[in-house]
Amino acid sequence: MRRWWVYQAERFPLFRHGPLIFAFSFSAVSFSWMLRSPGGWPDPLSVVVAFVSCLVFFLQLRIADEFKDFGEDARYRPYRPVPRGLVTLRELAGLFVIAGALQLGLALWLDARLLVLLLVTWIYFTLMSKEFFVARWLRGRHLLYMVTHMAIMPLIDLYATSTDWLVFQGHPPSGLFWFLLASLFNGMVIEIGRKIRSPRDEEEGVATYSEVWGRRRAVGAWWLVSGLAFGCACLAAGEIDFLPPLAIALGISFGGAVLVGVRFLTRQTPGAGSWIEAWSGVWTLVFYLSLGPAPLLWREIG
Question: Fewer Cβ within 10 Å of end Cβ, the chain: N or C?
């Protein structure tokens, strides 16, 4: 158990990822609920199933990366848990199967119809893990690579929302599209934000966006996808009558992103890229809280 505790601390820190994933899943269930219900709170069982299922999805993404990147990790990053022998790929495969069985059991427990969307997400996940069987071609096209891989985010969000609308209504509520599109762009915010580094922090064999695109273009791309996520979130918030508060909260967060990006570009000291990664997490937390818990409380107060 100690080995697994060390592994999660290094590769899937629960105390850092857990709150973000809970905000992600609770926001999805709550947004679906608010689109189809004038008041009240979403069903607790839907919230639990969505959270555990999303936590498992993101754990599976991490495990899939361990398999996909094993060769490069062994060559360039031997300090990581798998190359240094802390855990094995076989053990991770076993954990992957157990986690998938948990998702399957939760879907059957809540509503067997969830299996359809779960299967769709699993199929896309499998294709993505195999890099759509065009790995060499795709890896040379970094923008396309990012978009095709971040498309898993709205699929996971769709599954999370379905624990509400599929169970209690049977079909997606009107207005869900903007929430899912916002989730796609927000995934890009995180993806780009965690791969922007100062020159002295770059590692051989790691294709960061700051290395591939250059630091100015990488930060510009981070601002761009933040702005696109902001715009889609505003359109989603309009569907639940929460546009002004969300625009204020995300506007302040976007202003913070601009300041963090400018600070990085003007200094680029060792470790400066961690500010962008950290702010991506802050942005994500504000983003999902503004589309889930906050409007629910706003309704209650109103």
Answer: N
